[in-house]
Amino acid sequence: MKSLIKYYFLVIVILFISSCEDPLPIELVDDGNSTGQYDVDVITQEPNSAVFTGYDSTGITNSIPLKSSVISVSGIKNSYKNATVSKGYAEAIFYNTDQPIKTSFGDTIGFKTLLFGRVTFNGNAARVVPQRLFYRENGVIRDTLVGVKHILITNTFPYHSNINFHFDFFGVKPFLQTIKTPPEITAKLKVTGSRQNNDLRVELKWNAAPKGEVILIIGGLLTGRKEIIPLLRVKSIKTNRVVIRNSLLQKIPFEKYDGVIFTLVRRFQFSISTIRLGDIYIASQSIHNIRIDIPKN
After folding, report:
1. What pTM value is reported for the model?
2. Element spanning 69, H or E
């Protein structure tokens, strides 16, 4: 379901990004032009027709897999009010691209998955768990079992280091891959102004690093549920400071959400081809999710 570029907000989007020292806001409109300092995708996943990708753990917003096999390792921080909880999350999914998952409208939203080996990350065995696809169709949340995936959850994550991925084909020659991990990203968020006065403003700052792509994802936490819908993705950011003005924030349908999630991802990524696993997409990330409550005024 490739629906980027078809805008969810259906209005001009204004985003201001500035340098760390002397902010010079840059105006972005939906005419497809690029400033060279970032790329923006408004993700068309309306609340009544959304696929929940779990991007807050994997950094990946695509519901359709980028390759036939996807491996991601992430150091994750979740911040809400004055508390931050950290964890490590590793995941490996092997797709059967001959078995697409479709909605009742015929749209492909994913693929069934396969189990044909044993996965370890740094010598720690990943668990095999059900892989479920959650999506919303005609206002109803649907839950479809599509196979299995391999996951490993830890209390720590080796930032700016390496993770050794090992895949054992049940006795056949194993597949080994060293995955470099990025420096940890740590962000601070400041909210000023109000919706009532039309001057609501969100400012994000984070620590700079010499390597690693940084992306920002803005998502909405659905009312009464745990699922997060990605609304806007900003890629190729050249600074470590983003200012989001009311002209963008007022377009978010706040009444549909319990909170807004600002996700910053510092990512290393690459792809390789193998005989047994096919084309593999590998992502290594530091993720910081910051949740704010819906502004009342």
Report:
1. 0.84
2. strand 69-80
Token pair recorded at residue 204: 């994000």
What gap in Å lies between CA 165 and CA 163, rounded to an integer? 6
* Burial class of 123 by CB neighbour count within 10 A (0 to 12, 13 to 18, 19+): exposed
CA–CA gap between residue 58 and residue 263 (Å, rounded): 11
| pLDDT over threshold 50, residue 45 | no
Q: Which H or E element spans position 70? A: strand 69-80
CA distance linking residue 110 with residue 131, whole number of Å: 11
Decide the pairing of beta strands 69-80 and 278-293: parallel
184 phi, psi to nearest 5 deg:
-65, 140
Lowest-confidence segment of 16-25, 145-154, 264-273, 286-295 by average pLDDT:
16-25
Quick one: tokens of 275? 């005989």
Other Cβ atoms closer than 10 A to 158: 13
Query: Quick check: 121 and 163 in contact, CB under 8 A?
Result: yes
- Most confident region among 93-107, 176-190, 192-206, 234-248 by mean pLDDT: 176-190
Give dist(CA 291, CA 189) in Å, integer. Answer: 9
Q: Could you tell me which residues are beta bridge partners of residue 214? A: 266
Give the whole-angstrom CA distance, residue 235 versus residue 214.
7
Structure tokens at 148: 């299995």
